[in-house]
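worker-3 :: picked Copper-binding protein MbnP-like domain-containing protein
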Amino acid sequence: MQRKLLVLIFSLTTLLSCNTDNDDNVFQAIITFNFNHNWDGESVTNADFDDIKYTNAHGEQLSIKKLRYLISNITFHKPDGETFVLNGYNLVDVTNDSNLSFAPTTTVPVGDYSKVSFTFGFNNDDNYNGNYTDLNTALWNVPAMMGGGYHFMQLEGKFIDNTATQTSGYAYHVIGAVDNSGATPVFESTFIEVDLGPITITNNATFEIDMNIAEWFKNPNTWDLSALNTFLMANFNAQMMMFQNGQNAFSLNTVNQ
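worker-3 :: tokens ->
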């Protein structure tokens, strides 16, 4: 009888410690990020692609053919300055309906956080042509003459040009900005730290993240697709405008836990 009691106590202890930090006995939460997409509130999935059904702030009608983007460096910030960074990065591919959900292998302690953030793209320390074999396979690289490293986003489709009689293609590609107009290239950081605000983690948590695609074309720069549609990777000013417009593209919808 005593042996059975000891086995039961051991089993309960093992069960309760499955998601617990052994050092300080703090429950460790598994975090999942789900990425959802809309056009000013209208849901967007790959079922909507290749259909000219959206109107940007400049008045141009357009379609979406490709949308994929990189997020990295998910970070939980404690009020005392301590941070917990979740390992890995995620190439969200809406076109192929893949990687719309990201569950890093690392966990975070339950408790209060002053903010949760992630990086759109790679920060300067991570954005180099290194051992990201999956990104290399996905042809995510940026040519060295344009600064090297990796894309942050590829958004492509067609739009009705200013003649209102025919469609033209656009390729809204976001990378690190490089100004090659002078004798020495000037590099400008264009990755975006997305601040999701404060959160209290009480259990395993799923973050529902929204991207409003329309924001890339309207705020603060009203995007004129008839003038800025292709060859944007080498356009320093266009990249800086994209950086500015992307500041409000992402938002936190809900956290389920």
